Amino acid sequence: MEPTASEYISSLKDDVAIFYPVVQINIAHAIMLAERGIISADEASAILRALLSLYRGGLSKLDLRPELEDIHMAVEEFVIREIGEDIGGKLHTAKSRNDQVSTAIKLALRQKLLDLEEQLLKLVKALLAQAERNVDTIMPGYTHLQIAEPTTFGHHLLAYCSAFLRDIERVEQAYELTNSCPMGSCAFAGTSFPIDRVRVARLLGFGRVDENTMDAVSSRDFAVQSMGAAAIIMVNLSRLAEEISIWSSVEFSLVEIPDEFASTSSIMPQKKNPVIAEMARAKAARAIGNLAGGLSLLKALPQAYNLDLQELTPMLWDSIEETMNSLKVMEKLITGMKPKKDLMLARAERGFSIATELAASLVKHAGLPFRKAHSIVGRMISLAIEGNRTAKELTLEDLKKASREVIGREITMEQSEFEKALDVENCIASRNVIGAPGPKAIKRQLTALKQKIKTHQQLLRAWRRAVVGSEEKLLKEAEGRVQ
Ligand code: ARG
C-alpha cells in the first residue's frame, strides 16, 4: 500500500532503539529546567512523575501512530495526555527534537559500543585460548596463497588477536568521541532561556558538552566512525572466516569445523558446507554498505539539521547489531574448530617451505651473501622439481651441485647444519625475533596480549560503572523531585 506523507517521513519504527534514552533525556532536561527556575518545582514534579511512569511502564505506554512522526513527539504527547498541556506543554521549553535525537543516538550508541567492546574481548580470548592450545602445532604459512614458510597455528591465530585488539581500540576511540552531549543546542542556535548545558550533560553521564550548537545537531561523524569501526571489525572477521572456509576444504584439509557450524547439501549427501563462515563474510559486505550509505548521506549535506540525518540512524544500528551477531557466532566457531595436526605438519613440509631457512643457513654457515644463497637454493629447488623430488628428499650433494652451477664453486656446509635447516620444527624453534612464531617470541606475545586484554577490561568496567551509575543517579534525582 502506498504510504501517506506522514508515514513516509516517520521514524517511529526505528526509534524503538532510542526509547529509553529519549525518556532519560526528558527527565534530565526537566530537572535542569526546575533547577534554573524555568519551570516550578510543582511543574517539575508532575512532569517527572509522568516520565518516570513511562520509564517503568515501557514503550507499550506510548501511542505510536505515524502522524506523530517520531518517538520525541510520542513521549511529549504521553506527558501532555497524562498531566495536561498547561504543565506538560512546558517540557519542550528550551529543547528541540534536533538536539534531542542526536543526544539519544549518542546515549544508545554509547551502550552498544560497550557491548561491542565486550564481545570483541570475548572473541580475542577465544582466539587466544585456541592459539595457546596450538603454539606447537606446525602449519604451512602462505603468501599469495602459495606455501611460503612454516609457522604454527597458534602464531596464525595470534595475528587475528592483534587485529581485533586494534578494533577494540577503535571502538574505544569511537566511544570517547560519542561521549559528548548536544542537549541545549535546541534547533541549532541555542536558546535565550538560562539553561545549564553542563548540568544536563552530567545528569546523562556524558564526559562533556558539544562546543558548537550547530555542529551538535547536524553532525553524525561520530556515528559513521562507529560504522567504520564496525566495518573494519567485519573486514577482519571476514578474512578469518575466509581462511576457515579454505582450511576446512578437502583440498586444504587443515581444520575440522564442528557440525553445528556447517550445513549439508539438499542434494549432495557428502557435503559439509562452512556456512557460518560464509555468512560472516557476507555480513562484512553489509557493514561496508552501511558505512558507504552513511558517508554518502553526510556528503555535501548543508548545515544544520536536515531530515536526511534520520535515514542514517537505522544503518548505524544495523551495522552494530550485525557485527555483534557475527562476533558471537564466530567466537563459538573459533572455540570449536579443531586443527588436523598431522595434516598441517605434512602440508608445512610441502612446497619447499624450508627454502628461506636453508638460504639463511648458507649465509650463517657458508659465509655467502644472502642474494647468492637465495640463487643457490632456488637452483637446487628447480633441480629437485625437474627430478620430481620433494623437500624431504634433498641432499647436501644437491646443494653443492647447485652452488657449483651458480657461483662456480662448491660451498662448504656440515651435514648436520644442512639437516637442521631442512627441519620445519627447527625452523620454527629458531624464529624468536619479536612477534615471530618461535616459542620464546610466542611466550612474549601471549604475555603482552593478556596484559592488553586486562587493561581494556578494566577500562570497560570503569565505563560501564559510570554509565550504570549515572542512570541510577538520574532516576533517584527525579524521584526525589516528585512530591
Ligand atoms: N525523527 C528525527 C530523526 O530521527 C528527529 C528530529 C526531527 N526534526 C525535525 N525538525 N523534523 O532524526
From TrEMBL:
Ranges where the Fumarate lyase N-terminal domain occurs: 28-289
Coiled-coil regions listed: 106-134
Superkingdom field: Archaea
GO biological process, one term: L-arginine biosynthetic process via ornithine
Main location: cytoplasm
Compartments, as annotated in UniProt: Cytoplasm
Any matching Pfam family: ASL_C2
GO CC list: cytosol
Record EC number: 4.3.2.1
Main EC class the enzyme belongs to: lyase
Catalysis: reaction(s): 2-(N(omega)-L-arginino)succinate = fumarate + L-arginine
A GO term for molecular function: argininosuccinate lyase activity
Alphabetized UniProt keyword annotations: Amino-acid biosynthesis, Arginine biosynthesis, Coiled coil, Cytoplasm, Lyase
Pathway stated in the Swiss-Prot or TrEMBL entry: Amino-acid biosynthesis; L-arginine biosynthesis; L-arginine from L-ornithine and carbamoyl phosphate: step 3/3
Keyword Amino-acid biosynthesis annotated: yes
Domain Argininosuccinate lyase C-terminal: 352-429
Family stated for the protein in its record: Belongs to the lyase 1 family. Argininosuccinate lyase subfamily.
Descriptive protein name: Argininosuccinate lyase
Organism placement in taxonomy: Archaea, Methanobacteriati, Candidatus Hadarchaeota, Candidatus Hadarchaeia, Candidatus Hadarchaeales
Gene giving rise to this polypeptide: argH
